[in-house]
Amino acid sequence: MASNSKDKTIGEMYELAIKDPIKYSIITSLSWYKKLNLTKLSKLINKHESTTFRFIKKLIEDGFIEIDLETTTSEWGKYYKLTHEVKKIYDKKAEEIEKFGELIINNNEFRNKSEEELNSLFLNELLTKNLQKERAEVLNFLLLQQNVQTAIMNEILIRRQDFKEYYLSNKDSIQMNDIHLKPCDFALLTNTFKISKFIHLFRLYEVLYKFQNEINNVILEIEKDMDAEKVPDSERITQILHLFSSNADFIYTINTSNQK
Predict the structure, then answer these.
(1) Cys-Cys link to 79, which of 68, 180, 204, 219 (CB 3.0-4.6 A)?
(2) Are 140 and 21 a contacting pair, CB within 8 Å?
(3) Beta sheet of 65-67, edge-to-edge order
């Protein structure tokens, strides 16, 4: 570990690292994909390979990532993965976010609250609590989402052109049933709606939270199926499902009637 960071715990270093968009993008990408080489990482974070490699070296020095020896041995080039300690920190933060949703939705507390109480809940829990601490992480996450979406689109267009050229050059010697595609999907679902009360928003959250739990259960079932079938890691395709909801018309008012 680098000498300038040896006096800090890995948790303290993590809080500093997530304020850097490139470091956070690398950490999150490795959390999603488990292991990546330099080429794939640079595409996902939308940075040149030389820049990406410089940050990889620093993250290795600080104990955030390490070389995946097993994959590096079997594949071409070095592959990287999160260290066990950093993966635990990343997963713990994600779990804390889920627990907050579970606290509100599962107890159905919001159904028994007035609009004023829900307003207070948003102010105290969602808007002002640890806002400064989480701001950098949220901004970096949104930036990474944009990078990943661009990388996926670019890769699909490149593969489509490759396939078209190959097919046109070999259409007399191949049949369509000779071509076997890996599982692939690219879908964009965007919906807009109007709301006027917090209760409307919580009703939507309730559906999304239940949907997320169902998705997680299906993911576990699929993993068990692949384990039972002994599907190698090289044939397990990473699928990204991202649900994002926000307010494009952020408005607030201040009640001055009680002020002197």
Answers:
(1) 68
(2) yes
(3) 36-37, 79-82, 65-67
CA atoms within 13 A of residue 103's CA, in its CB half-sphere: 8
Residue 58: domain span:
3-181
Q: Nearest 5°: CA angle at 171, between 169 and 172? A: 110
Which are the contacts of 110, defined by CB distance < 8 A and separation ≥ 6? 104, 118, 121, 198, 199, 202
Q: What is the pLDDT of residues 22-70, one digit of tens each?
A: 999 999 999 988 999 999 999 889 899 999 999 999 999 999 999 999 8
Residues 88-111: tens digit of each pLDDT: 998 888 777 666 666 666 666 677
Q: State how many domains the chain has.
A: 1
152 part of a folded domain: yes
pLDDT in tens, 164-189: 888 888 888 887 777 887 887 766 67
Return the CATH number at 123: 1.10.10.10
Concatenate the DSSP letters of all residues of 153-216 into one string: HHHHHHHHHHHHHHHHHHTTT--GGG--PPP-------------SHHHHHHHHHHHHHHHHHHH
Any domain includes 20:
yes
Q: Which residues have C-beta within 8 Å of that of residue 254, sequence separation ≥ 6?
A: none
**What SS3 class is residue 48?**
coil
Closest CA to 63 of 125, 124, 9, 101: 9
Residue 237 lies in a domain: no
Establish if 46 belongs to a structural domain: yes
What is the per-residue pLDDT for 106? 64
